[in-house]
Amino acid sequence: MSIALVILAAGKGTRMNSDLPKVLHPIAQAPMLAHAMRAGAALEPERTLIVAGHGAEAVTQTVADIDETAEVVLQEEQLGTAHAVDQARAALEGFDGDIVVMFGDTPFLSADTLERMAEARKGADLVILGFEAADPGRYGRLVMQGDSLEKIVEFKDATEAERAITFCNSGLMAAKASTLFDLIAKIGNANASEEYYLTDAVALAREEALKVTAVACDEAETLGINSRADLAAADAVFQQRARAELLDLGVTLMAPETVYLAFDTYIGRDTVIEPNVVFGPGVTVESGAQIRAFSHLEGCHISRGALVGPYARLRPGAELAEGVKIGNFVEVKNAELAEGVKVNHLSYIGDASVGAGANIGAGTITCNYDGVMKHKTEIGAGAFIGSDTMLVAPVKVGNEAMTATGAVITKNIEDGALAIARTPQENKPGRARKLFDMLRAKKAKRDKGEG
Ligand code: UD1
Ligand code: CA
């Protein structure tokens, strides 16, 4: 059965109190919409349509970044969830598979739940995903009759008896496209909110003697985000799950609750992560690496057996080969470090390539930016960069070349050469003592004047 996902994301999200459309607020550094789309991808949909309204331009851009095959349809005015789904009608003209409706602000649906809905569709025309709510609040209520779902009543329109029901609507719905669009065409807005409720499709389907069932899932999966507090809680849920997965995969987290992960963090087994490490998007760490405390990583790749930190910063494009050592207060950006390279202290390596086994002394800086353009530094294999070297890019240091401590390197260095680029030292006998005497006398005079 081919599936078209229709993800509703046109609402304003008033309670977020934000200029950013609600579905673009990040959880684990990916927009919540990306999480919803990723959850939906478990169904291997043939089409994915996002219904956008508030902040449609930004939503469209984000959707393109997440999945270039996804389509965005516009809902100019937010007249309700049925009206929202109806905006996909033209785009799905002639599509004869199933539609699964999801909400963009419900990011944690499991693949298992979605598959159970698809399975239930084999025996029913319309399938709704429900959950037992600890606090049913303002959710729509599922009115069951045996195995059959009779109708969904929105909280605002519910009687006291209906409000007492705790089996609630998650918002997910699955049906054949033609069935769903036929039902939607009959939905009106004569209700407390004067909105076109998608949930009315259930009672209309029953009137036509169609089979309607509800599948139940855990409430944690239907967690909807409406406020910043919900967002923080959702991030916490994500972190907890992601940490648990890593532990299961054989990664040591010395203090799991202090490690912040991104939606796509990949860490191989037998890697050790010390406390207070932050992973931004796009980090992959191979087996057996060690990330020491207080390091911040994003968009980088760390190979087997590498050692990073404490207090290291790896920025996008940092590529560390096997056994590379990055020490404290070192920043690496857009640079390839070949096997066994060591940058142990207080350095900046940006827009660079460093050959195997090279040793970068403390305080080395690649001066990659001239105020207008970025330039590259190439350091050969086995090179030794003396402490406090400024490498003014573009510049090349040959294989097994050396720079003397404190050098300002502006010219290429050939293989095996030593570059010295600093003012020669001059010692003045006795001058330090004279200077001390002079300064002390000056201070004594001043102290006396004050006293
Ligand atoms: C909806 C359900 C309710 C369910 C609850 C679960 C309806 C009528 N009610 O209520 O039964 O318990 O979700 O969270 O469906 N949206 C649009 N365009 C619109 C209106 C909404 O795209 O015109 C989108 C919103 O951006 C959101 C989703 O649809 O992603 C749900 O809309 P919302 O207004 O939050 O519905 P609820 O009142 O929460
Ligand atoms: Ca809602």
* Main beta-sheet strand count, sense and barrel state: 11 strands, parallel
Amount of beta strand: 25-35%
Say which molecules are bound, naming each kind only once: uridine-diphosphate-N-acetylglucosamine, calcium ion
User: Residue-averaged pLDDT, rounded?
Assistant: 97
CATH topology of the largest domain: Spore Coat Polysaccharide Biosynthesis Protein SpsA, Chain A
- Shape call: elongated
Protein structure class:
alpha/beta
CATH superfamily of the largest domain: Spore Coat Polysaccharide Biosynthesis Protein SpsA, Chain A
Instruction: Give the % helix.
Output: 10-25%
Q: For this structure, what is the CATH class of the largest domain?
A: Alpha Beta
CATH architecture of the largest domain: Alpha-Beta Complex
Number of domains: 2
Give the uncertain stretches in residue-range form.
none
* Rg from alpha-carbon coordinates: 31 Å
The strand count comes to 35
Number of H/I helices: 9
Q: Ends: how far apart?
A: 95 Å
